[in-house]
Amino acid sequence: GDQEAGEMGLAAVPGRQAAFRQSLAAAVQYARAVGCPRTHLMAGRVPLGTDRAAVTSAMETTFIENLRYAADLLAQEDMTGLVEPINNRITDPRYFLNTPHQAAAILEKVGRPNLKLQLDLFHCQIMDGNLSRNLETYFPLIGHIQIAQVPGRHEPDSPGELNFPYIFELLESLGYTGYVGCEYAPKEDTLEGLGWLHSYWESRGLQHGGTSKAAE
């Protein structure tokens, strides 16, 4: 979509299906060029001046239609589509997709194996909390994890509500082998902001880079 015009994705916006398909085709070209197997299919915002409840049904229908189209196109490229709930309490009051429960229900209706849940724990904590149970419940649907401390959206070792060493161990115990995206704003610069990762590796007996000391 056109971010300068206030758009945050098009997948659930009625009347913008053609623009969504055009954007998706471009995204697939980029993903193919850089060898990225996953694409975030952004739902978009409830139109300005519109009551959310009044348009929910139409937006969900559009979302499902566009997700099926995207899944079939991405399958030809051996790619996965991701949908991400974004909290509407702080980050984006008009964003259509807000909770993992809503996302899971839509994914079930779409019924495509190459569509997965992009679970950002920052948004999930703000909307619902109950992270351990939500991770366990929705683990079969998860295709990507993102992290940030709550409420400041900084590094995971910054002051806040979430116990990330516990969460990382839970992800390992569940068998998660994918990437964990650092979707946060560093309090200082990027390298300094990765100090938490070095400390975490050391606490697990790993060297910087995640390699085992024992293996060497």
Written account of the structure:
- The protein has a single domain, classed as Divalent-metal-dependent TIM barrel enzymes (TIM Barrel), CATH 3.20.20.150.
- The protein is 43% helix and 10% strand.
- A 5-stranded parallel beta sheet has the order 1-2-3-4-5.
- Strand 4, helix 6 and strand 5 form a beta-alpha-beta unit.
- The protein is globular, with a radius of gyration of 18 Å.
- It starts with 16 loop residues before the first helix and ends in a 13-residue tail after the last helix.
What profile does the largest beta sheet have?
A: 5 strands, parallel
Number of strands: 5
Protein structure class: alpha/beta
Radius of gyration over all CA atoms, rounded: 18 Å
Number of domains: 1
A few lines on this structure:
By secondary structure, this protein is an alpha/beta fold. Helix content is 43%, strand content 10%.
What key attributes describe this structure?
alpha/beta; TIM Barrel; 8 helices; 216 residues; globular; 5-stranded parallel sheet
Question: What's the layout of helices and strands?
Answer:
Blueprint: H1 17-34, E1 38-40, H2 52-76, E2 80-83, H3 100-110, E3 115-120, H4 121-127, H5 131-138, E4 142-147, H6 164-174, E5 180-182, H7 190-193, H8 195-203
GO molecular function: hydroxypyruvate isomerase activity
Domain Xylose isomerase-like TIM barrel: 9-199
Protein name: HYI isomerase
